[in-house]
Every structure is written in structure tokens, then in C-alpha cells.
Amino acid sequence: MLKSSFESLATPHESDFFLEEELMHLPNNETIYLGPSPHPRVRAMSVPTRQDIKRRYNADTLQSLRKEVDNIFLAKLRRMDMRLTLVQHVVDTARTRPLRRPLMRSRQSVFAALFANLPTVERQAAAQFVDVEFVSSMKSISSMSSDVPPPDVAARVVDHFARIFLAPVAGSTLMRPLQHSLAMVLMEFARVFDALYGQPGQPPSSFMTDDDKLHLDRAAMDVWEFGELMVQVIQYKYPFLAPTCVVLVQEAVEDALFLHLQSTLHGLYAAVHRPVDDFLAAATARLRATASLLEICGIKARFRLDYTAAAAVFAALPSLRTPSAKISCVARTCQGIDQCIKVHYMAQDGVLVESLNVTADDLAPLLAYVVVMAGPAACRHLASHIALMDAFLPDRFAVGQEAFALAMLHAAVTHIQTIPQISLN
User: Fold this and answer.
1) pLDDT class for 199, splitting at 50, 70, 90?
2) Which of 3, 71, 98, 396 is the 20 to 30 Å CA partner of 174?
3) How far apart are CA 137 and CA 245, in angstroms?
4) Average pLDDT over residues 137-142
5) 309 and 171: one domain?
6) Contact 362, 300 (CB under 8 A)
7) Residue 424 pLDDT
8) Domain of residue 224, residue span
9) What confidence category does residue 348 fall into, taking pLDDT thresholds of 50, 70 and 90?
10) How many domains does the chain have?
11) Do both 354 and 238 map to the same domain?
């Protein structure tokens, strides 16, 4: 009996086959057993290969580098937009200043805004290297006590600021151009100055009006203000510079300013002084064509010598960029006149060179003769050059041979203006 019951359990009942067959014909079961699997097929070994890891690492690295470059580029664009907005703000503020005499410098210059947000450390690697190299080379000489810096120190200072301010060679692909923050500020001032004074105005009249003179004085004062601000910022940025090096810094700033302002500023002076320039050019051309120019100029008989060397020195005046260089050229011309006289009489016996003192009354006609003989190029914009030297006479030249030479040039030009009316009628 027990055996029969086990056999009944082991043997499937016929109704079970019918139930299974019925379940297999259901639509859900057909989908489950016969349809595609809802889960994706996965390899038994899903460990990434070395090539997959390398490819994924390279992709992540490139994406991170691209993101970093994009962030730097966007930050640079934002800084450029901010600086352009700042430049336009300075231009608008400068145009609202009252233009009346006397021209007074405000306590806070409108150009001081250009120095806002200057980085303490240069952003460009090349500019950082130049600054670090300059600081390390000047540390040992920060305690100079002499009034004049040694030649090696002067060479280092001049070379450093020349590398900062002077423009790179056009078309040079050997190295990336240096972008120093001080040079960027100076170029921004050049754009401001060009926006204020570079627009073509009315043609000049036959004489200079008060408005023209006031316009020139305002332009000169703006250049003076910015130059002084730049020198102060340089002294703050490089506190180790000795007081004897300030003159070198002033010369470097002046040279950099007139590198960018030469076309606008010289054009402004030439446009205002064009009538006087034309008159002096015609007068010197007439005098140059005469045979007895030494006698016509009123030079004493003992000083009627050959002054070709002095004339060659003065002929370089138009090619010099800065007013300081032009004033130094006039001073060298006066020294050349004195040297020509001494060289001539040193070759003669019985003449004491020490007794040949050239007074101011003698020097004025001598310098007038040298100016005439310097050539038409030196006399084409003579009044403009003199006005430029007067407006930008440095304090270091206010007393000395440079100031005396500039005063003698004024006297020589006045002498030239009277010669055609008296001698040539």
C-alpha cells in the first residue's frame, strides 16, 4: 500500500500535462520564453583593456586642457572688455574737463584710472621672467651713493625698460612678444590721447589763435600728467631703484610715450605752427642760396670759419623722437660751434684759444648760420620743433647748458626772421 502511494507521487498525472500546455499558450509566456531579453547581453569578462584605459585617459586629459584653455581665453576676453570700457570712460571724462585758462592740474588726474587693477605679479611668463631677472641683477646695487649711476647700472635700467616699453619687431616669429602691464597701460593712454587730439580739425589760419594755443597746452599737460604718474608707479613697483636712476626712468618713459604719440603730437604741433614753419623754410632757402651768408648773418670777421661739422649735428634734429633728445642736439650744436673755433685757432701760432670767448651776442648769429646750412630738412618744421621743445623741457634741463642752448636757438630764429627784411629786402 505504501509502495503504491509512492508510485502515484512519482508518476505525473495526466492533468499536469494539460495545465503546462495551457500555460505555454499564454501571450505573456510566449514573450518571456520566445522573445528578446529585456537586459543587454554582457561579456562574461567586462574588465577594460589597457587600450581602453589609455583612450579614456587621453580623452579626459584633452577635455580638461580644453576647458582650462577656454577659461583662460574667456578671462582674457573679460579683461579686454573691462579695459576697453575703462579707456572709453577715461576719454569721456577727459572731454568733460573745462577748457579755460589758467590750466590747472587737478588733485587726481583723470588718467589715474588707467592704473587701476594692475597685477602685482605679471600674468605673462615672459614678463615675469624679465622682472625677476631685473630685480636679481639690481639687488646688489640698491645702496648707491653717487650722484650718477655707474655705466653698468645705467645700461641695465635702460635695457630693462626698453624691453618693457618698446614694441616688438614686426613679423618676428622667433619668440612671443612681451606683454608687460606697464606697456599695456601706456598703449591705452596712447589710444586715449589719439581719441582726444587725433581727430582732424579745421585747417590752420594764417596765425595761431588763443584756442589753438590752449589746445596745445592741454595736450602737453596731459602728456606731462601721465608721464609723472607712470614714473611714480614704476618707483612703487621697483622700490629698490636708487634716486640716481629716476632720470633714466624718466627718459625711458618719455621715449616710450613719444614712440606711440609721435604721429598725433607732432602732427598737432605741425598743423598749428604751419604758417611760421612755411615762412622759416622759405627764409632759410633764400639765405642758403646767397654767396656771402657769413657776412649777411652779421658774424664777426674772426668767427667766419667752416662750421660744417656743427651743421651736420643740427641736421639730425628732425630724426630725433623725444624733446629731450632734440634739446641735447641743440646743446651739442652749440658745443660744435665752439669746437670749430678752437680747432681752427689752435693750428695758428700766437693765438690764445682761452681768449676766444664766444659770447651770447656772438653765438646767436653763428647758430643762425649753422641752422641755415643744416639743410632744408632741418628747417622744414623748425617752429614746430622749437614749440615742442619748449612744451616738454624737462626739469633736469631747466638750468644748464641745455636751457642756454634752447634760448640761443630762439635768438637764432629771431635773427633769421630779421635777415630777409634787412639784408635781402
Assistant:
1) low
2) 71
3) 14
4) 69
5) no
6) yes
7) 46
8) 62-97+110-272
9) confident
10) 2
11) no
